[in-house]
Amino acid sequence: MSYVVRSDGAYSAAFQCLIGLLTGDTASPGFWNIYFADFQLPHHDSDIRLNGRPCKMDNFYGWSRRKFMFISPPKSKAMIFGPLPAILPVFRVGAKVVEIVPRFKYVGMWFTSTHHNIFAAHYAEKASKARKVANATFGRVKSHLGSLPVREGLRLYMARVDCYLISGGEISLDVQQSFLRRLLGLNSSSLLSILYTETGQTPIKIRRLLRALSRLRYLLTLPLTEDCIVRDALLDSFSLYCSGKASWVGDICFDELSDDDSVLDADLQNDIDSFERTHLLKNRVERIDEGEGRSRLGLVTRRRRHYLDVVVPAHRKAITRLILSDHNLSVERLRYPGRYRAAAPRHLRLCRFCRGAVEDEAHALLPLRERFLRDIMDDVGGFDHKWAADKPYEFLRFLLSSRKIVLRLAKFVADTLAVYGSHPRYLPATLYLPM
């Protein structure tokens, strides 16, 4: 689009505007900068300042009248942060009074003056929208296709939900966690670390920090020769932090986190190595691509795991719940107290069929191993030497790590858990609480 500028009756040569995005016609960012080029504010000792830069209303109103620009008083709002004065001040645009409000949306961000976190309303709104989009995503997919596959679910999450969660750089955590739990088929009390180690996703808190650090890096690279309000805001934030007051820089320092992925992975891996419920994830190695056709086996903390690609939803959820200790076997369910009964120590979480051994993953699956192994032995060999009666979990981990048999293993797990789920659980009499 070509433009011509008229000044004092003279016309410039036609030119194209290549600065910013054209939102209509001549009100582009480039022309707005030209329009405001002569805006100057006189200083006063009582001015509200941003790193020394004064901010005023009356002078701006007078300047706008001279420039034939109209300021709408009904659309203008005032906010007071911190303790309210005994007598509220009156703000005016010309003769019209500006309303003082406790919350207001400005440039897509909600600000709140009645909460210790000025972005509390923004976080709540974006979390609500993300939750609605997540529910709509699962609902629409279920009505048309059934269960949402994990790979496609993660893509929809990044495309439709994540954009709300990172709006403003910080948001509530529960939406991301509930989406991943629902996608994997886990209950609402599952471990948090496994949501990221099994899907390869980054926690929202870390994503928020990375965005904040990226913004900080950009601000620090601004040329000192330019008169930038955004740099004044940064320097003012540093001053507030140094004086012990709340600020954006202080929020970043408070997180005490690093933008290095290895720190996040080390923290997640420590959870895997420490928690009892992650015993099937310990010492897990996977193939790492090193490029040029070379690869090696090593520890990969975060990755979308191969078993999440199982096509049949019931089989995929069954093997996921088994690996992540979210199944219905007594070794997991009796870990916690229930109505009228106490939590059971491990040696009392007995099998509902034989009642002679702990009903854990290895006990439930491996007694049926002969029929299952005969089914896969023709295609994949090398299982016999892996079995050791005194190390059943090592053999189970070996089976779970195999990509070649994951489809049949998932079906085998689903069938086995269905058998256990169709019979009542055995509860030793010593677990019942006195009435």
Described by its quaternary structure, the protein is: single chain
Helix content: 40-55%
- How many strand elements? 13
- Write the H/E string, N to C: EEEEHEEHEEEEEHHHHHHHHEEHHHHHH
Question: What does this protein structure show overall?
Answer:
With 435 residues, the protein is mainly α. The chain has 16 helices and 13 strands. The strands form six sheets. The chain has a three-stranded mixed β-sheet with strand order 7-9-8, with no helix packed on it. It has a two-stranded antiparallel ribbon with strand order 1-4. The protein is elongated, with a radius of gyration of 31 Å. It starts with a strand and ends in a 14-residue tail after the last helix.
Compose a concise summary of this entry:
The protein is mainly α and 435 residues long. It has helices at residues 29-35, 58-66, 120-144, 150-165, 174-184, 193-197, 204-220, 229-242, 248-255, 261-274, 313-323, 330-333, 361-365, 369-377, 392-401, 406-421, and strands at 2-3, 6-7, 10-11, 15-16, 48-50, 53-55, 77-78, 91-93, 96-100, 103-106, 109-112, 286-291, 294-298.
